[in-house]
Structure formats: structure tokens, C-alpha cells
Amino acid sequence: MSEELKLSILNKLESENSIADTKTAFVDVSPETILGALKSLESQEKVNYKTLTTEFWTIEAEGQDQIDNGSYEARIFYAVPAGEEGITIAELNSKYGKVASLGQGKAFQNKWVKKNGSSIVRLVDSIVDQIKADLEVVQATGSHPNTNVIRDLKRRSLIKQNKVLSYSVSKGANFSTELKKQATDLTVEMLHSGAWKNAEFKKFNFDSLGVNPSGGHLHPLMKVREEFRQIFFDTGFEEMPTNEFVVSSFWNFDALFVPQQHAARDLQDTFFLKEPAVATELPEFWETVKDVHEKGGYGSIGYRYPWSQEEAKKLVLRTHTTAVSSQMLHKLAQEPYRPAKYFSIDRVYRNEAVDATHLAEFHQVEGIIADKNMSLGSLIAFMDRFFQKMGITKLRFKPAYNPYTEPSLEIFSWHEGLNTWVEIGNSGMFRPEMLRPLGLEEGVQVAGFGLSLERPTMIKYGVDNIRALVGHKVDLGMVESNPACRLDKKMGKEVFQSAVETAN
Amino acid sequence: MPTINIDKQDLFEYLDNQYNTAQFRELCFEFGIELEEDTSEKFVLAPGERAQLKIDIPANRYDLLCFEGLTRALGIFLGREPSPTYRVAHTENPHRIMVSADCAQIRPFVVGAVLRGVKLTKERYQSLIDLQDKLHNNLCRRRTLVSIGTHDLDTVEGPFTYEARRPEDIRFVPLNQKEEMDGHRVIEFYETEMHIKKFLHIIRDSPVYPVVYDAQGRVMSLPPLINSEHSKITLDTKNIFIEITATDITKVNMVLNIILTMFSGYCSEPFTVEPVEVVYPDGETLVYPNFERRTMTTSTKYLNGIVGVQKSNDEIIALLNKMSLDASLDKKTNAVSGLLKKMSLSDKSEDSQIIVKVPVTRPDILQECDIAGCLGIAFGYNNIPRAQNNSATVGKALPLNKLTDLVRKEMAMAGWTEALTLSLCSHDESFKFLRRTDPGTEAVVLANPMTIEFQVCRSTMLPGLLKTIRENKKHAIPFKIFEVSDVVFKNPELKGTGAQNERRACALFSSRMAQFEVIQGLLDTIMQSLNVRHTRKGAAGYYLAEAELPTYLSGRSASVVYTDEDLNEVVLGSIGVMHPEVLVNFELDYPVSAFEINIEPFL
After folding, report:
1. pLDDT of res. A504
2. Cβ–Cβ < 8 Å for A377, B386
3. Distance (Å, whole) CA A270 – CA A248
4. Is B394 a member of any domain?
5. Are both B152 and B236 inside the same structural domain?
6. Would you call A177 an interface residue with chain B, using a CB distance cutoff of 8 Å?
């Protein structure tokens, strides 16, 4: 059948040179069948075709009713007998029901009938039912010369627009009336038989997509982590052993000079443990820490409150990776002085209500730099360089408070999309009350900085809800389709956003 | 971080209308506070409603928690006004608070002072109330450490007593109430009151409650809950008596000084307060407040070094003054070093000693580094020149993380997809749902989780991955997912915490059939990549030893055993076809096969 149709199209082109409209040339063939044949012929460059759209109007059921029985207003007119008496409204309504309510208004408007007390009487002797006449024109020709009429009939839902597709066809570059079977793919049999030499290959559609490879995928948060690690390695940082989620309050708080009444140590902020509940022992320098809280030292007046060993022994899920950094600094201090840079990217825990931007556990990115030359100026210079590697070039710093750093600062970056400064992390120089009990000598400054891993990932991958990124509610389809992480390039919404901006 | 509400018009007028909201936001940024919101920018104000500025204050700056303190600090920062000198008036017969011995067992400390000749307005009165609220919620740790009582001095009569009495022996009409109550009734009455009820626990179960009386035996306050109606402050109050009770002597002094410095500007003699004597049962008499400024010594070299600037003595002194710090050169030591310099005996030419008198409004200044912080703010964090002077160090990966990445990438290259699950789960998910019983020696249990989702640290990776399949019902089968991350379990032998992490690799396959060979194939691939041969027992490499494990279907599970070069055997974990009851527990429709192994032996 389709071969037959193709041949007859080609023959018609041979004799007539072109086909103006397949609708008239092939009256009985459906447009879909014609299109199939034309596409196949086009892929062999035997024909070119253009799509023609013909619009026409058909009569709806209500329109057909008015062609058969007259328009509602005409039916009302005929229902009113000639003469002074007319018909009572009540009788008209009861006899004609819906037609009466739909037709009356128009009949009044046309000045065919009028109200006379409780009756309706004729105003004219005869009428022309124009609606019916117009509908008959549409039925016969598929349209109406007066576009106002079409609009009116359409508004009254009496007619409906329809479309029919047809095609105009002309000869293609390789026109012939001969049809040859096309090969869809190169096969091993063709190679062996040599049939490939004479075969005509079906043309590829290069606009379509390929078959999905069934490969594996890494999670986007882990891809961003990889990028951060690379930046740290590039800038000389050594990775810290943070595979220790359970720590004592001593390392998480006390050693960092966080007082025991600090809000962060409340039950509603920190996960404490029931089993095991307390550390079996504290590091040997715990009394130095106790002293600096209670009495001060190293030029500090301390917090001057009674420090409790029990409180320090309480085990917690670490609230920050600084609980490990402090241990690393303690180790570093046991060796002869050397400058050091440490980093980690790992899980931390907060006993907070979970919502679109907060989870009870998230990944903290942390870096610390121990150096005798360290100043606020060199810390800021380092921040500039670090964030530049992430493609963030516009930074500024706000003075802030943190119990274990002073000076402390919050890092803000300019967000092009939001057109505002957004906080991206915090930083500061660790206090002597923290460093000196750990054993670091006077004059060694240690700067630290931290940010969450989830936040830049959500921005880079255009994820709005953190639960869609971390945890079992993650969409595996998202993991399987997300792009590679290139922090210094535009990704996700950033690409989309800049495309929109360019378009505007 | 506390947020305070400040009347926009009043504030801007104080600053002579030199700022609009955007400019004020910049000023805040520079000063280290944050303008969160201008209500007139966000909402349409009702007629007569005044615009408020919501400002975030750092948790250590108690001196910025009210209009008075904030405007004063900004005024000084901008060089528009000098730092006030706070004075304690010389008083012949100061008011006294006699402390009874019983207080020691419940709330041992009390301090006090008098603000004389105060002119209150509606705004000032509200500011005083709001400041007490802010202090109570922050520095006072929700009144557990410190609580403040303010009274109209002219309604009471000294000397005052601070006692601890049985609740039934205390009778008074609490603030804004009509009914006279005893201590028990007070507890009962405020049990349903939103504001006060959260403080009841501080004294409820104590046999005695702390109470402040005047000379006529009238109750003035029942700390830390409520003051009495009788002595309450009104807009007509002229003389304010302040008593503050506490369990922490350091903080009670801070609170007293903050209240006094903030509101003494309204006294007939501005910034001057009248002292109160506190007499303890042993006869020890202490006079409050103590407005003596603490003296700290620092040096220009240290300050310049920390901030990363090169400022002269005079510049540093001027900058510190902007932060309300009274700084001056230490004449004595500098005279000596000047002499040495002249004699060319010292090279410390750029170093001078600076003496800083810390005002009582700044109890957050503990150490030299806090002065350096002030210098940084006064100079402007964003004006500090960048210094590229980091020492060179060598980057290095943690071996465990390097190994982890190797295994992760092998699995992904083998066509598996990485999941990222939570390390906390419910106890049931970790045990009952996996058909395991809790031996009591494994799970690390949380003491205060908000939901059952976070009862324990996971001691197996399986629950998170099973839940991931459960939540991805729309995903086409087969599921091939993995995760390499830490589990946590108890280890009583470990000194210190008694808990430890272990790095595990876990993978799940789920489809119309369990297809054990698929999950086994992935395990084989990982082992191959780690250079571990598939062998039999007794030879270096790994083998699967059939094992009855409750999580898996009987006869379809094995232990994964690793034998190292020295022929030491380690059980790495398990592999098998998941038990159908486990699938029901995790609401899964398709068969699942899985393995979970410890990768740390391959370090």
C-alpha cells in the first residue's frame, strides 16, 4: 500500500511536475498516510514538501438543531400567534421551556415581539431567520464570507473550528520514479556479502537524541565535595581524619573556649548521647582548659564561672568538624613548630527542626591555617583566592561573633541572580584561650573558616529542597541526570538564569 | 543571635537623618551588626504605625540590645559623641540589702543599685522592659543564672532583705494581678501563662523560694519569676530600685552594669547611679555597682600584626576610641623604650605599649585579641590590605578517603548509582526491621532526638539504602545503588568516647528477580580493583562463607571473608538475598540483594 502510494506520488510529479495540494490530488488518502509516504520519499531526497493548513468550520449539535428547527428567537416568534392577544409569558415558558428563555431576549432585541402586560404579542407579520440562513451557509461551504457572522456563531457555540493538514509537493534533488529498498543499518552480513557497496542507507535524523548509556552515577554532593577537595589540595591543605562522629563535649566545646552555659550546648541545639553517655577520660591537659575558663590566663580574664568536668565529659554528636581540628592542633603543638594547613569535609549534627534548608545532619567544609605570619589581611587574601577557584570573585566581610575566634568574620558573596550579598561562610582567628591550652606557642596564629557543602551544591545544581539532595528522599533520577561539577563554571539555574537574562 | 526592634524614625533622627535604609544597612555591616528588615519596606504600615528596624546583634554585645546602647555605640563609632564616663555617686547612707543564710541553697547572690531622678516616657519604659527580656533570654540563660527586678523606690522602704522562705509563707499580689497569692498558688497560677511558665522549673521543686522584702515586710519580688504589683514601675516613677539575683556572680555584675549604663543617661545627674550595699550573713558587705574600668595592656606591634595594617600610635588610639575603648600610650614603658631607641639599644622602634581602659559596657572584651578585633572593625574589615604571605605547605589526602573514592568510582564505573543517606535512623530500622535483635553493645543511642527518625546512629548502611528504594518507586527497575560512608557503633574498649566509626561500602540490587549473581559481580569487581583475589579459605584473598544471617533469606546469604598476606582472617561483612519480611518492613515490592563490607582493612 505505502509503496503504491509513493509510486503514485512520484508518477504524478513526473507528469505534472508538482502537486499543489495533496488534499485534492489524493482525495481518499488520510493526511497521516500521505505524510508517512512523503517523509520516506524526502529522506531519499526524491521529493520536497510543504505543509498546508486549511481551516474550516463545522456545525455543533446546537447549531444543527437550529438549522433543523429554526433559531430560538424564530421559534419564539412563530410561537406567538398574530393579533392583539398574543400568548401569556407563563404559557410560552411552560410550552417551550429552555427555548423560551434562550430565544426571548433576542426576539425582543430584533423587535419581532414585545411585552404587553403579562403577554407577548407580535410586532411584525413575518421575519427572516438570519441565524438559520447563516448556519446553512457555513454547513455548505465550511465558512462564511462575513467574519462577524463567524465570530457571533462561534460565541454562541453553534459552530466549531477544524483544521485539516495537506501538503504541496515538488521534485527533490534525487527525483526519479524508481523506488529502491533502503538499508537501516550496516550489518555484519552486508560486510561479508559485499552488499554494502550497492546499498542505499536510510538517512539519520541528527536532531534526535541517542540511546541512554546504562552507566553509573556519582551523587552531586559528592561531586561538589571532590571539587572542594581539589581546591584544598591545590592550595596545600592536608585532609584531617574526621571519621569520628561521636566526640566529648570537651573537644566539641570546652577545648574551643565555648563556655559551659553557652546556648549551643543546650539540649535543643546539640544531640547528646544516652549510650554511651560520657567519655571515660579527658585529655591530660584538661585542667589547663578548666583554668582558662574559670580564671583566664594568657592575658585573658576568662569567663569566671565554675567549670564542671562532668559537663565536659558528656558525649555529643559533633556539632562542627572543629571538634577534630582542635585535636589536630593539639597534635601539631606536640611537634616542633611548623606552618600547617588542614581541611575536612564531613558530616556534622544539629538537633534542629528539619525543613527545606535545614537537616539534622549536614556536611561542613572547614579549613584551618596555622602560621606565625597569619593576620586578618592574609586570611582575607586567602579567602579571595580560595573562592576565586570556585568562580566567586566578589567578596566582602562582616565583623561577627564566635566564642572561639577573634577577630571573627562572616563571608558574603555577591549573588548576580538575587542581586544581593549572601552569606556563604564564616571565618576567624582562633582565640589564644583556645590555642595556648592546646600547647601552641605564643605568636602562632591559627585562622579557620567554614561553610556548608549543601548550600553551594543546592545553588550549583538548582536544588530548592535540601531533602531532595541528602537522605533517602533523594531522587535517583536527579542523581542519574545531573551534570559534572565545575565550580568555576555556570551550572544548573545559573546557566538557565543567564540564558533568560540574555534573551531579555 | 538576638534580634532587636528599633523605632526607625527615632533612630534616624538621632543620626540627624544622615542615613536612609540602604545606607544604614551598610553602616550596620561595617559595624558588625545586621539590618535584617525595615518593616516599612516589607509591609504597608497601618495608619499611625511606626516603622521598625529589625537588627541582629552579635550574641556577646549586651551593650547593643536597646535603643539607648545602640545609638550611643553608633554615635561614638561615627565620632559624633564622646564615650560617657559612668560614675557611682557618693552616698552617705546607701540602701542596703540584707542577705539571709538560706539563700545560699537556692539562689545565693544579689546585687542592686538606684537610678535617681529618672525621667521615663512610654518609649523609655518599653525599652527598659525589652532590654530586661533580651538579657533574661541570652546572658541570663532564661533566668536560670540571673534575673532582674526593677521597682519604684518611693513605694518601698529600706533596708531590704533577700531571703529564702517556704512557698506557703510567702504572700503577695504579683505584677499586674489583683489576687493575693502564696508561693504554691503563684506556681499554679503561672502554669498556664505563656511568658512565665517556662521559668517555673527553676524553683518549683525547691523547699524554699527566694524572695525580696522591704523593711515593712512587703514582698517586692519572687525571683526568678515575678515582681510584686505593689512596687511596680510606672511612667511616673522617679527613682528606680534595681535588685538582681543570681547563681552566677560574674554574670550578675555584667547584667547590673548593662542595665545601669544603658539607663543612667535618663537620671537627673546623667550617667551617675546610686550604690547599694549588700550585707551577707557573715557580715561581709559589698557595694554595687563596680564601675571601675579594667585596664589592659597591649602593643601596637601586636595589634597591627593581627589586623595586618601599619598604623601609628595615634591612629590606633583614635580607632580604638571609635569603639568606646579609652586607649592611651603607656608613658612609663614608652619613655624607657624611647630612651633605648635614642641610645640605639633597641630595635623595637615600631612597637609601643598601649593601655586600654575597658568600659563596663564591654564585658565581652577578655583578651588582647578582642582589642585587635575592635581595631579591625574601626579600620574597616573591607579596607584591610590583602597580604599574600602564607607559608607554603603540601596538600595531602586522608588515606581512608582516598580508598573510599577509589571504591566509589569503581562502583559508578560498573554502572551503579551513588546514594547519600542519613547516618541517623530509628532503632527499629536498624534492628527490628532488619530482623535483628539489639545486642545492647552495638547501637550508639541519642539522648534527646526530636523525632524517632533520629534515635540511633546507624550501625549498618542498609536502612538508608532500603529507604532510598522505597522513596523512588517511580524509578524504573532495576535499582543498582551504592554508598560508601561511615557507620558508628559502641566500642567500650576504646578509651575516650567508647564509640567508633567504620567505613563501609554497601550496594543494593532490586528488580523482578533477586539475581544474587549481579550483586556478587559488583563485589568481585571491587575486590579485583583492590587487588584481592577470589580464593578459598586458607589462602590470601577473599571468599564467601555461607552463613545464616537474619536479614537475609535462609541459605541465600554469606559472610564476606578476607584473608590477608599473613593469612589473618577478617570478616568484612555480608552478602545475600534480602529476607522477604525485611522487604515488607521497608515497604518494598521487588526482591533485593545486597552486600555491606568494611573497607578499612584495605588501607
Report:
1. 46
2. yes
3. 12
4. no
5. yes
6. no
| This prediction's pTM | 0.81
Domain-embedded: residue B393: no
Query: How sure is the predictor about B245, in pLDDT bands with cuts at 50, 70 and 90?
Result: very high
Provide the pairing of β-strand B479-490 with B417-418.
parallel
- Determine the average pLDDT of the residues in B351-377: 95
Is B175 in the same domain as B308?
A: no
Report pLDDT for B343: 64
Give the lowest-confidence range in A122-131, B170-179, B294-303, B391-400. A122-131
What is the number of CB-based contacts under 8 A between chain A and chain B? 293
Q: How far apart are CA B401 and CA A247, in angstroms?
A: 20
For the stretch A293-347, pLDDT in tens is 999 999 999 999 999 999 999 999 999 999 999 999 999 999 999 999 999 999 9
Total domains in the fold of chain B: 4
In a shared domain, residues B252 and B150: yes
Specify the 3-state DSSP secondary structure of B10: helix
> Of A167, A170, A168, A180, which Cα lies nearest the Cα of A44?
A180
Do B410 and B493 fall within a single domain? yes
Give B409→chain A minimum CA distance, Å.
8
The pLDDT score that the predictor gives to residue A496 is 59
Distance from CA of A205 to the nearest CA of B (A): 27
Which of B268, B288, B308 is the endpoint of a domain? B288
- Taken in order A395, A396, A402, A406, the sign of the CA dihedral is positive
* pLDDT, mean of residues A35-51: 88
pLDDT at B348: 46
- Asked if residue B439 belongs to a domain, the reply is yes
Query: Which chain B residues touch A361 with a CB distance below 8 Å?
Result: 422-424
pLDDT higher than threshold 70 for residue B341: no
Quick one: B481 and B418 in the same domain? Answer: yes
Spell out which residues of chain A touch residue B296, defining contact as CB-CB under 8 Å. 299
- Interface contact B446-A399, CB threshold 8 A: no
Query: B197 vs chain A: nearest CA distance in angstroms?
Result: 18
The one-letter amino acid code at A272 reads F
B445–A477: do the CB atoms touch at under 8 Å? no
CB A74 within 8 Å of CB A104: no
Query: Cβ–Cβ of A399/B251 closer than 8 Å?
Result: no
Q: Measured between beta carbons, which residues in chain A are less than 8 angstroms from residue B421?
A: 471-472
Q: What is the Cα–Cα distance from A58 to A63, expressed in whole angstroms? A: 9
The model's pLDDT over A232-255, given as tens digits with 9 standing for 90+, comes to 999 999 999 999 999 999 999 999
Three-state SS across A178-200? Answer: CCCCEECCCCHHHHHHCHHHCCE
> End-to-end CA distance of chain A, in Å?
51
Same domain for B134 and B276? Answer: yes
Q: Concatenated DSSP letters for A104-161? A: HHHHHHTTSEEEETTEEEESSS----HHHHHHHHHHHHSS-S-HHHHHHHHHTTSEEE
Whether residues B226 and B322 share a domain: the answer is no
- Which of A218, A340, A475 is closest, CB to CB, to B412? A218
B370, B392, B490: residue with CB nearest A236: B392
In a shared domain, residues B439 and B492: yes
| Count of Cβ atoms closer than 10 Å to residue A354 Cβ | 16
Residue of A nearest to B387 (CA): A378
Single out the residue in B77, B101, B131 at which a domain terminates.
B77
Question: What's the pLDDT tens digit per position in B43-74?
Answer: 888 888 899 999 999 999 999 999 999 999 99
Choosing among B446, B457, B588, which should be mutated to test the A contact, i.e. which has the most A CBs within 10 A? B446
Identify the residue whose cell numbers are 558574603.
A412
Tens digits of per-residue pLDDT, A149-173? Answer: 888 888 888 899 888 888 999 998 8
Spatial separation of the C-alpha atoms in residues B199 and B142, rounded to whole Å: 7
Check CB contact of A484 with chain B, cutoff 8 Å. Answer: no
Which residues form the domain of B352? Answer: 294-380
Most confident region among A154-158, A465-469, B505-509 by mean pLDDT: B505-509
